[in-house]
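Q: Focus on the chain.
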Amino acid sequence: MMKNYMKLIGLVLMMTTLIMSAVLPVYADSGEKETESINEKLGVPIIVYGDTLTDAQKTETRELLNVGDPDTVEEYSVTGEDIANYINGDPNSRMFSSAKIVREEEGEGLTINIVTPDNITEVTNEMYANALLTAGVENATVDVASPVAVSGHSALTGIYKAYDVEGEELDKARMELANEELGVATDLAEKEGLNQEKVSELITDIKQTIAEQNPATKEEVEQIVKEQLDKLEISLSEEDMQRLTDLFEKMRNLNIDFDKVKNQLSDIASKVSGKIEELVNDEGFWNSVENFFSNLVNAISDFVSSLLK
């Protein structure tokens, strides 16, 4: 009995080793640390930390955002005063979520990476992308992280500040509207029968339809909202439907270039599709999966055979 027990322990250890070797990538360490190259045309990456972070949390966030040499980045903090200044928010707000902004060449589009998805609980990549495009942020790679669980709203204000301190002023009305959009999106995602992905799809579809149809009146905006709700089979209360209509009517009144927004969103969708396609076509990945299960079956077979001896 003890002999079989020891064999069982051996099998568990073997299976654990197989799983780790199949799942975890292998990296070769040359012993030399990589140095970040400074883009002399577009400037260095900008890091904006939530002001409520402790020193230890800030250090952790710096690591999460892959900040190496401090001489290759510009670092700032976003405060409650900033949230009041940029979007008329609560100056007593506690700010934890932080962001790293790397400006890209014209036409590269907007890429959002949530580095700590378990800690950004209410806002998705697509929600950030939609809101930032509404605010006028384009052609950038934005990484968002937080060492503690937060909604993720304050990262948006941090991104606004990053552009402001670097001399690229964003329109305050558009920033406020982008914040309102994020609030509507996160509120709707909590409604019964809805989720973050469905709400992001709805908002994106409405923007793209507005870009195509260029509505001239609030009634036409309302019709577009209703049509997209019907198409996606989403049922909202009259109050929530009105919130959506009012939101997009404000965007129309601000003369936001929806066609430009549509093109940027298409860029994001293409990049995501490309990453998925790369994974599907990664022969090495699927070979490792096949080898893992083959080795697992062989190990179990050998163990069972040993018990019968």
